[in-house]
Amino acid sequence: MEEETGCLLMPKLSSSQPKPSKSQAIGANSLVALEICAGGGGQALGLELAGFDHAAVVEIDSAACATLRANRPEWNVVEGDLHSFNGKPFKGIDLLAGGVPCPPFSVAGKQLGAEDERDLFPEALRLVREIKPRAVMLENVRGLADLKFAPYRESILAQLEELGYRSAWRLLSASDFGVPQLRPRFILVSLQRKYANNFVWPAARHTAPTVGETLLDLMSARGWPGAKAWAKTANGIGPTIVGGSKKHGGPDLGPTRARRQWAQLGVDGISIANEAPDRAFPVSAMPKLTVQMVARIQGFPDSWRFVGKKTAAYRQVGNAFPPPVAAAVGKAIADALSGNANCEEPSRGLSGLPLLELMERKRAPARRATSRTAR
Asked: Which positions are catalytic?
């Protein structure tokens, strides 16, 4: 059976969804992913780097879909509402992945969780039931890890357990994977039980460059004489890039606290610039970042082009899952599915235990240490 070998052909699409061209045929030896809520392509690009072909990438925003088509014309980009997307033609695919909307859980919002109409976790779970993929990968903001959402997380784990998956959440920081910003993301990985013991969470392997090191060539591209001095000031990693929503105003680097942090790195975060500073820009002034600069801070290659006006392009960048992080998690999933994981790794396997139980286990040593100190 295809599930046993990990070899899938392009699934037949329903008549309501675009059919792939011959150039979109997926190799028989490839791992295949279906991506939902693909945005500007950060996670899809990372999974491609990890060895996954894409049967389809699903996104509702027209500008983001234009970006996906511009950069990967061979991809099957399905533009539309996830609620009406039929997953059945993709039954048995290797990986269902996506970055479901974060506003329901973001500390910058009202954190309504399941009460927020933008919560698409139920749709993701519907697709798991329809498709029965070998693996699932969903990412969201750190706010979902808050204690108030523990029952919600437990409900997701319980539903996946009933469907035959072992699952675990993990908070990963983009800076641990070579991305020059903090950007913590809360990742859910689920694998069918027979693959779960093969999975090993990716370890931090790269020291992130500073913002100055990352952007010096772009800051000096138009002859600004203050670029080298600025790069020495920007000698740390950046705070989390904030993309905002369509209800938010123009593009900027986030709320007041984030802007203060950017100011410490010599960056004016009040808005996004159209171009890098030129020769006339004051040496001692704080430059603004361009969309290309923000994209590089997110871990995108310079070759990845964002389509749309500045605000639309910036939101695609700011809301993206950094490709290097997606690649690291995707590679760990690919290794688990193909049996290439390190069998001697002590943290190997998805336990499937309730998250609260895991949290209690981690808290226990700290409580015992506190008690000994008190005595």
From this structure: 102
